[in-house]
Structure formats: C-alpha cells, structure tokens
Amino acid sequence: MCLGLPMTIVETDGVSALCEFRGEQRRVSMLLLSDPPVGAKVLVYIDTAVRLLDEAEARLIADAIEGLGAALNGEDCDRFFADLIDREPQLPEHLRLG
C-alpha cells in the first residue's frame, strides 16, 4: 500500500524541494507541479509531489495518518476522525454495488 503524505515545502529549486512531515525531511521531485512556494503543503507519493493541498485538507490527511498509527497501537483513535462522527463514510460511486 502506498500512502501519500501531506508535506510542507522547506526549500525548493523548482525541480526538487526539501519537504517535511512530522520532523522528517526528504527531497522530493516537483516536476508534476508548477513551482509552489516555500511553506506550501503538497501531497507526496514515493518522493514525488503530486498536488497542492490547502491547510484543511493537509490537516485531515495528517490526522488520518496519526489515527491509523493509534489504531495499530491499540489506542483510542476517534479524536483523529472527528469529521466522520456525524456522518457515515461514503464509497466513491465506482466502488458501490448495484
């Protein structure tokens, strides 16, 4: 399984960028994006930034990752999925039966 990380650009040269998530830094390819600025949030898969994120979406993804970690450690994870408390998660249309 490949997990996309919401990373923050620390420095960039337009071709690659030093990005950070949870204190870990790594150099990622920026070839799929149009030179986002330092401080921008990007979704990174396999050391490639694939799209820009706004602050709210980056926070939701980071919370989900922390929630998965808590669940794997047998800890309470409900606080990480607060956006799902008042609604049932919905499958995308192409995954629904019948």
TrEMBL record:
Classification via Gene3D superfamilies: 2.30.30.140
Signal peptide positions on this chain: none
GO molecular function: carbon dioxide binding; iron ion binding
Top-level division of the source organism's lineage: Bacteria
UniProt xrefs under SUPFAM superfamilies: HupF/HypC-like (SSF159127)
One GO BP: protein maturation
The family this protein is said to belong to: Belongs to the HupF/HypC family.
Name of the protein in question: Hydrogenase
